[in-house]
Amino acid sequence: MVRLTRAQQQARTRAAVLAAAVSEFEEHGYAEAKVDRIAERAELTRGAVYSNFSSKRSLYLAVLLDEWPHRPVAGASPAFGIADGPAFGVAAAAEAFARIWLDRLPLAGDTAAGARLRARSVAGVFDDEPGRRVLGEITRLEGLLLGLALESCRPPGGRRVRLAETILTLLHGADHLAESAPGFGDPFDLARACGHLATIALHDEWDPPHLPFIPAARACDDPWQPPEEIDDGVLVVLGARRLGAAEETVRAADNVTIAAVTGDPAELGALVRLRVDGTMAMLRQIFPGGVRPPVRVIVDGAEGFAHAIGAPVGDDTEAAVRIRDGRVVARADGRGAGHAAATA
C-alpha cells in the first residue's frame, strides 16, 4: 500500500472538495448551496472543507478559477491580429470582443444555477460594501485594458476608455438579463451593437483634477531584485480598492507593470484574478501581438513585487517605482504614486 505524503493527501482532499462543490453549486446555486452538503458529497467532514477553504465564498471562487482553464472560450483562433495593419479596425475589434464575451452566456435550456457557473457569474456573491467597491475598481481596470486595446486599432484616434466602459456596460447588462431571462436577445445583434458604439462620439478627456497636486517622486539609485524579471519602465503596486488608479500610470509611461495586491487573497484576490485573467484571455485572442503601450497585470505573486519595493500588502496600497537599466531610479507612494513615478 502506497502511503501518500501530507501534501499529496491535502491535494487529493482539495480536489475532492472542488468536485463536490461544482455539483452543489450547479444544482443549488451559490446562495442556496450548503457547506455541509458539499462535505457529504465529498465524503469528508465539514472541518476538512474549511481546512482548505476559509468560507463558502472562497470555495465558490476557487471553483470558478479551477473550471476556467477547462472551459474553452469562443474563437479558439484569433479573429485578426496586429499584423493585419490598416484593416485592423476599432469597430471590428469591439465586435470580436463582444462575440467572445457573449459566448459564455446561458442558453434557454440551462438551469439558473448552472447558467451562473457557466458564465462565471459573481452576481450576489459580493453584496457587501467592501466587495462591491472592489468590483467597481476591477471593472474600471477592465475598461482601461479594453480601452488601450481599442486605442491600438485603426483609425488612430484619441482615448477610447469611455467607449470600452460603454461596451462593458452593455455586456454586463446582457449578463444580468441572461440570468433572469435566459434566451432573450440575439448575441449576434448585441455584438454588432458593440461594434456600432465605436461610431458614437463620446466625451473622453483625460485630465484628472488631482494630478497637479501629486508630490513628485523621490529620486534614488537603488538595487532592484524582483521576484521575477520585468522590463524597464514603471512598476505600480495597487491594492484591490485602488485598481482604477492604473490609468494615471499608463497615460504617463511607455511600459507599465501593475501588481494587484490585497489583504484578502482567498476572496478579493481570487475575484481580481478571476476577472482580470478572464479579460486578458479574451483580449489575447483578438490582439495576439499585444497592445500599445504595453501593460502587464500581475495578480499571482504580486505580493513579491510589493515586498521588493517595500510597499505594504493591503487593499488601499498605492506605491510605484521607475526602473531603468535594472535599478530603481525613482520612488513614490500614496495617491497618484504611479503617475509621479512615471513622470519622474
Task: Please characterize this protein's 3D structure.
The model is unreliable at 70-87 (pLDDT under 50). This protein has helices spanning 6-32, 35-42, 46-52, 56-67, 90-102, 112-118, 129-151, 161-180, 187-197, 246-250, 265-286, 302-309, 337-342, and strands at 218-223, 233-239, 256-261, 295-298, 318-324, 327-333. The chain is of the alpha/beta class and 344 residues long. Strands 1-6-5-2-3-4 form a six-stranded mixed sheet. The protein has three domains: 6-70, Arc Repressor Mutant, subunit A, CATH 1.10.10.60; 82-197, no CATH class; 215-342, no CATH class. The chain contains 13 helices and six strands. Helix 1 packs across helix 4 (56-67) and helix 7 (129-151) runs parallel beside helix 11 (265-286). The longest helix is centred in the N-terminal third of the chain and has 27 residues, at 6-32. The N and C termini lie far apart (63 Å). Residues 34-53 bind DNA.
- How far is the N terminus from the C terminus? 63 Å
Mind telling me the C-alpha Rg?
Answer: 21 Å
Q: Rough shape?
A: globular
- The main sheet orders its strands as 1-6-5-2-3-4
Number of DSSP strand runs: 6
Major β-sheet, in short?
6 strands, mixed
> How many domain regions?
3
The topology string of helices and strands comes to HHHHHHHHHEEHEHEHEEH
Q: What number is the mean pLDDT?
A: 88
**Which range does the strand content fall in?**
5-15%
Helix count, DSSP H or I runs of 4 or more residues? 13
Quaternary class: single chain
Indicate the percent of residues in helices.
40-55%
- Helix/strand/pairing class, anyone? alpha/beta
| Unreliable residue runs | 70-87
